[in-house]
Design brief:
Layout lengths: L1 E4 L4 H11 L6 E4 L6 H4 L7 E4 L7 H9 L4 E4 L9 H6 L3 E3 L6 H16 L2 H9 L17 E5 L3 H12 L3 E5 L10 E3 L2 H7 L2 E4 L13 H6 L4 E5 L8 H9 L3 E6 L21 H7 L4 E3 L8 H19 L11
Helix pairs in contact: 1-12, 5-7
The structure holds 1,4-dihydronicotinamide adenine dinucleotide (NAI).
């Protein structure tokens, strides 16, 4: 099988080349550039393309891929809300993804954000380097004994719930499909989780139903001084409402690994660019907000699992036996 790999970063190449040793018949060509209508034309002669969560896989791009003879889209990620799956199905393109490559990687980052923003580590790091040892502005909250509210208790939410439990927190959660094996969690409805939690962490996928589920009404239900963490998808949160509430001193801290309009920034070095996106600039101006660059997944273990499963997905597809859980369409 010949695979064209878009938007390849050095760590992707290293990780995929290490795993590829087990697949001598597989050819992979790595491209720096991400996929677009223009660059999709480069897939002529390839059986499959490999893309990521930040790639724009709309109907036009998929049509171009189909016209080049591409039959398989290998998503090296769990989420696929950036893919027009209806168009892919109509064009006969199979999509395989990597669900649950390392839920702990994402959950540990969610807790890292919560801890860092809680104790203002981002401020302290800079301050101490400037010889400023004052504690003013650094007051945190004990997490032990407080309530964590997890929205979505699938693989990542379950891992986050376990971490919060380990911190001595009382864990409540909302999920359409509660997981009875998580017997330390008290399932509640969404409103109760919003109003009863000191730390709220989003771990549900983005769907048509939950676009902007965190908006001025849902934020108004939250406790004052809550810590809010989003490592799921930016569009779950109405950023303008979030900013308005931060300005009203609603939150003790906000940690965002994902945010609306992140696509142009994700994994790019834009330090010489003038910030065009006022939303990101505004978020970065608050002392109690930390933004990271969609990096929650980024651990050695997760990258190895992503490469392993992506290559196995390609092989399983060739054998006509793709794993059901990995099959998007
Ligand atoms: P999963 O499919 O194992 O679990 C998702 C859970 O959310 C399910 O239990 C489902 O019933 C629940 N759910 C669906 N809609 C809901 C709603 N409206 N309200 C409450 N719960 C709802 O998915 P997993 O692996 O835990 O991933 C969760 C999300 O994390 C992904 O969809 C993705 O958006 C995000 N993610 C972020 C990464 C990062 O690097 N920042 C990396 C990987 C995933």
């Amino acid at each position: 099988m010949k695979i064209l790999f878009y938007d390849a970063k050095p760590y992707d190449i290293e990780s995929f080349e290490r795993e590829r040793e087990g697949y001598p018949d597989m050819e992979i060509e790595y491209l720096n550039t991400d996929i677009s209508v223009r660059t999709a034309a480069l897939a002529e002669g390839y059986d499959a393309v490999c893309a990521f969560v930040s790639s724009e896989l709309n109907a036009d791009v998929l049509k171009k891929l189909a016209s080049c003879g591409v039959k398989l889209l290998l998503m090296r990620c769990a989420g696929f809300n950036n893919v027009d799956t209806k168009a892919a199905a109509e064009l006969g393109i199979t999509i395989l993804r990597v669900p649950g490559y390392s839920p702990e990687a994402v959950a540990e980052h969610a807790m890292t954000l919560a801890m860092a923003v809680n104790r203002r580590i981002h401020k302290e790091y800079v301050k101490v380097r400037e010889n400023n040892f004052s504690l003013v502005g650094l007051m945190g909250l004990n997490l032990c004994g407080r309530t964590a509210g997890i929205i979505g208790t699938g693989k990542i939410g379950a891992a986050m719930a376990k971490i919060c439990h380990g911190f001595g927190m009382h864990v409540i959660a909302y999920d359409k499909y509660p997981n009875p094996s998580l017997d330390f969690i008290e399932y509640r409805n969404l409103e109760e989780v919003l109003s009863g939690s000191d730390l709220i962490s989003l771990h549900c996928p983005l769907t048509i139903e939950n676009y902007h589920m965190i908006n001025k009404e849902s934020i108004a239900r939250m406790k004052n001084d809550v810590i809010f963490i989003n490592t799921s998808r930016g569009e779950l949160v109405d950023t303008d409402d979030l900013i308005a509430s931060i300005l009203n001193h609603k939150f003790h801290g906000v940690g965002l690994d994902v945010y609306e309009e992140e696509r142009d920034n994700v994994f790019e070095n834009r330090e010489d660019d003038i910030l065009e996106n006022a939303v990101v600039a505004r978020l970065l101006s608050f002392p109690n907000v930390i933004v990271t660059s969609h990096q929650a997944f980024f651990t050695k273990e997760a990258l190895a699992a992503i490469s392993r499963t992506t290559l196995k997905n390609a092989q399983d597809y060739e054998k006509g036996a793709p794993e059901k859980e990995n099959l998007v369409c």
